[in-house]
Amino acid sequence: MNHGARNVAILGSTGSVGCSALDVVRSFPESLNVVALTAHGRLQELVEQAQEFAPRFVVASDPKAAQNFAWQGLPPEVELFVGPESIECVAAHQDVDVVVTAIVGSAGLRGTWAALEAGKTIALANKETLVVAGSLAMALAERHRATILPVDSEHNAVFQAMEAGRREDVQRVILTASGGPFLRHSLTDLQEIQVAEALSHPTWSMGPKITVDSATMMNKALEIIEARWLFGLQPNQIDVAIHPQSIVHSLVEFSDGSVLAQMSPPDMKLPIQYALSYPERWDGPARRMDFSELIELSFEPPDEERFPALQIGHEVAAAGGTSGAVVNAANEAAVASFLSGQMRFTDIVPTCRTILNHHDFDPDPTLEELLILDAWAREEVTRWVCT
Ligand code: NAD
Ligand code: MG
């Protein structure tokens, strides 16, 4: 173990963000030390990661997958835990300084929660935690003096730009959106979208769920809600601008009209690195902007008629309460149905809208109530698909 290095747990280490986080560790072996890795599937990759990074613990969160897997390759000095509760144990472990939450969906909530309760520094990729329970999570962070550093590239950019001024002088945040693969599609074209098309993003390489979310623009809706809680903004302080080049990762407008942006070529390794190095900046392998070439940056307003998800994002950010948990779960289930060929692309967002409008809204729910509504919304989607 390196003395003075930051001890890191990566929840969801076999995913897109998880693998990028390990790339960052690979670049800074003196400064970062992996203590724990967790994965739900792709267990062979988890074993290979354990061989390379020699963590103290690995967690296989899906007991069935763990049971069916031959673990001989796992180095004997690495301790194996099985089951979702073990994610919470490693997230809260006393030897862990920073927890990278890179599990996809509301399944990531319990690990993030345990890290918050243990007062850890959290490099937050799992935006769904804040969408489902942003108000409760931020209060928990304050109570336990946990620090949340955003990994989501837009929020990481906002976080960086905000450091240039005083919080009370922030007037507006403008989240940029690439617009996804269907930015120029007509409503008719959108109805014919097949899974493979939705999984091919023009500027980012990501896991399947967030890639579909980017195509429907539900990802930006989730990010509006994430920004509302993370930065304590009023919902009307958050705007979205389409920026197809994905170079300006977001902008902050201050009260005097100055707008500050953070720019870099699109690569998740940079926001992950900043969350792991903060408040330091480390000279790493991130690709640099090349100003010897023509760089064109464009911004345009989003078309909320073709992408009605954005309206949901603004509404849910304003309503708070149970609405985030419901829309998030409905979206997760709808995306899963689309990926398995049971739902049309253009039905994902209307499904979320209907379930959101029909739920029993509570402005001040407990975590237990939110989890019950999460399950309810998923069942509603299943009922829709089956009828
Ligand atoms: P992914 O699908 O590539 O990886 C998900 C990881 O979570 C895997 O390690 C998987 O084993 C684990 N996992 C899946 N289901 C689980 C469950 N039920 N319980 C425990 N672990 C489970 O996802 P991703 O694209 O890396 O995204 C991870 C999170 O980061 C998401 O919340 C996403 O919104 C956010 N994010 C991702 C990107 C990106 O570039 N991929 C960018 C910004 C934010
Ligand atoms: Mg993002």
Summarize this, please?
It contains 16 helices and eleven strands. The chain is of the alpha/beta class and 387 residues long.
Structural summary, described in words:
There is one protein chain. The protein is an alpha/beta fold. The protein has 2 domains: about 5-150, Rossmann fold, CATH 3.40.50; about 155-265 and about 305-385, Rna Polymerase Sigma Factor, Chain: A. It has helices at about 15-25, 45-55, 65, 85-90, 110-115, 130-145, 155-160, 185-190, 195-200, 210-215, 220-230, 270-275, 310-320, 325-340, 350-360, 365-385, and strands at about 5-10, 30-40, 55-60, 80, 100, 120-125, 145-150, 170-175, 240, 250-255, 260-265. The strands form 2 sheets. A 7-stranded parallel beta sheet has the order 4-3-2-1-5-6-7, with helices on both faces. Strands 9-8-10-11 form a 4-stranded mixed beta sheet, covered by helices on one side. Helix 1 (about 15-25) links the parallel strand 1 and strand 2 (about 30-40). Helix 1 (about 15-25) packs across helix 12. The protein is globular and about 55 Å long. Bound molecules: nicotinamide-adenine-dinucleotide and magnesium ion. The site of nicotinamide-adenine-dinucleotide has 27 residues, from helix 1 and helix 10.
